[in-house]
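re the bet — no i am not wrong, look at it urself. input seq straight from the record:
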Amino acid sequence: MAGMGPPPKPAAQRRRTNATVAMTRLPSEGRKGEPPEWPMRTHAGYDDNLWAELWSTPQAVAWERLGAGTIRVVARYVVLLAEADVGEPKAAMEVRQIEDRLGLSPLAMLRLRWEIAPDEVAEQRDQRTAAKAQTDVRARLRIVDSASGQ
């Protein structure tokens, strides 16, 4: 993207610790509920599954906060993505630009100052599972006495 400059560095990597705009934390589980109604008159290029998938992402929480105009942008993205998949070169360029505006790539999320909040429940579950697996391995070990040959 011309004229945007480099993305901001994470707070731990900055040399100067001036006050900056805080990151917006998006829930890792994504947006709950049904996707909005398809906003366009025509259904050309409309993919039900992609529409529902996009509206269940963490970014969809931010889109909802931005208002109704964003719903049309997401719909335009779905239509252009279908055209780009068919091989339409102009649609492919538009898709890339809309992806940046919707925060659908890690770099775009960084530029928008969005971050996905860690899922603390899943982290605790993973830690318990790892600890249990380690305990199970230790329980299967036995001491071999070299004198008796076992």
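see?? The chain has a mean pLDDT of 82. told u. also The first helix runs from residue 48 to 54. so pay up
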